[in-house]
Design goal:
176 residues; mainly beta; Elongation Factor Tu (Ef-tu), domain 3; SH3 type barrels
């Protein structure tokens, strides 16, 4: 499995028992959706390796307590500590309306209510407290805060994100 065909689920955070159980932190709003997985991909030395799950259960709402096949001791668990977990993109629940996954809108056209086509969405910057649409128009990069009241619609059929940005925000980039 290629990493490009997967999404980041979380990370093995700590050992749970002397029998090799681990706690995985899940990067999701709906951890219960992932409670009964049969397997996950664990990134080991930049390769995704399938690991089969004997049992799992939610632990304190944001952790998944996992018992993997072939991980029987604390020493076995040490070998996967801190490793990232991935699942195939096909396992993502379908979102509707104005809900979207960041990877889903890459390549969509950003349409502003006033300005029309303001460029192509090349990514989402979520490294700061406010996530930003990264929009490319020619050689210009436009950053638009990902604020609910700026997002009018996600048009999946036409691959567009319809925005209503405050007057002057996009102009700051285009007039420079």
């Amino acid at each position: 499995m290629r990493k490009e065909d997967c999404f980041y689920l979380g990370k093995i955070a700590k050992k749970f028992s002397y029998k090799g159980e681990v706690l995985a932190w899940l990067d999701t709003d709906d951890p219960e959706f992932y409670e009964n997985l049969e397997s996950v991909f664990v990134e080991i030395h930049k390769h995704l390796v399938p690991f089969f799950i004997k049992s799992s259960s939610l632990h304190k709402n944001e952790f998944l307590r996992i018992r993997f096949e072939d991980i029987e001791t604390e020493e076995d668990a040490d070998g996967i500590m801190g490793c990232e977990l991935y699942l195939p993109l096909t396992m993502l629940p379908k979102l509707e309306g104005n809900n979207f996954y960041f990877h889903e809108i890459v390549g969509f056209t950003a349409q502003d209510k006033r300005l029309g086509n303001i460029g192509t969405i090349t990514g989402v910057n979520d490294t700061s407290s406010q996530a930003l649409f990264e929009i490319k128009k020619g050689d210009i990069e436009i950053l638009v805060p990902m604020v609910d009241h700026f997002i009018i619609a996600i048009d999946r059929e036409n691959k567009q994100v319809i925005l209503d940005t405050p007057e002057g925000l996009v102009d700051l980039y285009l007039d420079a």
